[in-house]
Design goal:
By secondary structure, the protein is an alpha/beta fold. About 30% of the residues lie in helices and about 30% in strands. The protein has eleven helices and 20 strands. Strands 16-15-14-17-18-20-19 form a seven-stranded mixed β-sheet, sandwiched between helices. Strands 2-6-5-4-1-3 form a six-stranded mixed β-sheet. Strands 7-8-9-10-11 form a five-stranded mixed β-sheet, with no helix packed on it. The N and C termini lie far apart (about 60 Å). The structure holds S-adenosyl-L-homocysteine.
């Protein structure tokens, strides 16, 4: 912290376009929009941005690496970024989740980065374990203070620190997966979502261990599953499958390329066998590349298919290819659906827009020459708000054939 406080304030002037983008509430200042900078900035420096009239425009966290140079914390009147500021903002973030969940759901997102005003920082709750994930070293000099404030306002057994891949070797003294506060982890973490129990690998699992963003789609799938044979493609640890089973599915097939994901899905079924509908549902797992498997499986063998692939466009240059892949998956899945069957197609690619994704699914559905009806389109759940264009990554469409 000391080097942050002893240097003169880092002052920036930015392009006219960037000024208006920031004023409109966009949280990112890109390096190529910076016109003037009074000194070299360190990771985590508070950068203060002045407009053309030399008036305070806003402030944010400086990151000397990567194209996003400043992640904005505040735009408007000058404010002091002290301990009270952080406390007040965390209170507001936590208040936004108040009453969203009952006692049946103790796993959800507490802070969704930029969309909650804390850019590049995610905080997820899994029962009494919190997972704090940072995507920029701009947070490392402030971590102790942030962890103190979280601990004060949301008492928990422990806080695990996760580092995004690009900062794992740059975040000294912190390490990926360390327990930054609280008790050691002696057993797997188990939490509840809509009354279902799930095991989660908070130390090594993808994201923070679970795809909390799909909860509302899982709840919808439960309502559509009665009497159906369900295929959960890209199943991960079986999230959708447990809801389908509880909703009365006759059988559920988990399809994933990762054996670890499928073992976790088996354990998650075991954790919920006290629920009669789950105990009586036939559950099987298939370890395969979903693209290949969907192409070669027996036609008309399912009544409900969920397609929830990982992001198919990690960067802008992969966008076209990803749109094509969504079409291919949809075409293959439709062939496997019986008459009256339902397809739930999801996309979590930020680089593919909702229109592009829906367009490619609809085109494949039309091409099939089968009659179909659109049942529903969904986006972000309330604990994963999306407040600027790049944040809208999640979309899903429900079709009945
Ligand atoms: N639907 C899940 C999340 C899916 S995450 C949930 O609600 O929890 C994406 C999953 O796709 C991961 O488990 C990953 O192992 C799997 N995956 C990635 N590429 C794959 C491929 N080519 N074939 C099958 N599974 C794949």
């Amino acid at each position: 912290m000391s080097n942050l406080e002893s240097s003169p304030v880092l002052r920036l002037r930015v392009s006219q376009t960037a000024e208006s983008i920031l004023r409109s509430g966009h949280p990112w200042l890109f390096s190529d929009s910076i016109r003037e900078q009074n000194r070299t900035g360190q990771a985590g420096d508070l950068a203060v941005i002045y407009d053309r009239k030399d008036q305070f425009l806003g402030m944010g966290l400086f990151d000397p690496e990567g194209p996003i140079r400043v992640r904005m914390l505040h735009v408007g009147k000058p404010q002091k970024l002290d301990h009270a500021w952080w406390q007040k903002h965390l209170t507001a973030i936590l208040d936004r989740r108040r009453n969203l969940f009952d006692a049946e759901t103790n796993g959800y997102r507490l802070c969704n980065g930029e969309n909650d005003g804390w850019p590049g920082l995610i905080l997820d709750r899994y029962d009494s374990t919190l997972v704090l994930k940072i995507y920029t070293t701009a947070w490392t000099p402030r971590l102790e203070e942030i962890v103190d404030i979280i601990d004060e306002q949301f008492p928990c057994e422990r806080i695990i620190l996760r580092l995004s891949r690009n900062i794992q070797d740059k975040s000294s003294p912190y390490t990926e997966g360390q327990i930054i506060r609280g008790k050691p982890l002696l057993e797997p973490v188990i939490f509840m979502e809509s009354g279902l129990r799930f095991e989660v690998d908070v130390v090594r699992g993808q994201k923070t261990g679970f795809f909390l963003d799909q909860r509302e789609n899982r709840r919808l799938v439960e309502l559509l599953s009665q009497g159906r044979r369900v295929l959960n493609a890209f199943s991960f640890s079986g999230g959708f499958s447990l809801y389908a089973a509880r909703g009365g599915a006759v059988s559920v097939t988990d399809l994933d390329i990762s054996p670890h994901a499928l073992s976790a899905a088996n354990r998650n079924f075991e954790l919920n066998l006290d629920q009669p509908a789950i105990a009586s549902c036939h559950h099987e797992t298939v370890k395969a590349d979903a693209f290949d498997w969907l192409d070669s499986a027996a036609p008309a063998s399912f009544d409900l298919i969920i397609l929830d692939p990982p992001s198919l466009a990690k960067r802008e240059s992969e966008r076209e290819q990803a749109i094509g892949a969504y079409g291919r998956l949809t075409r293959s899945a439709i062939k496997l659906l019986r008459p009256g069957g339902i397809l739930v197609a999801c996309s979590c690619s930020a680089h593919v827009s909702t229109e592009e994704f829906l367009g490619s699914v609809r085109e494949a559905a039309t091409e099939s020459t089968r009659e179909f009806k659109e049942l529903q389109i969904t986006a972000h759940p309330a604990d994963h708000p999306a407040t600027f264009p790049e944040a809208h990554y999640l979309k899903a469409i429900y079709l009945r054939f």
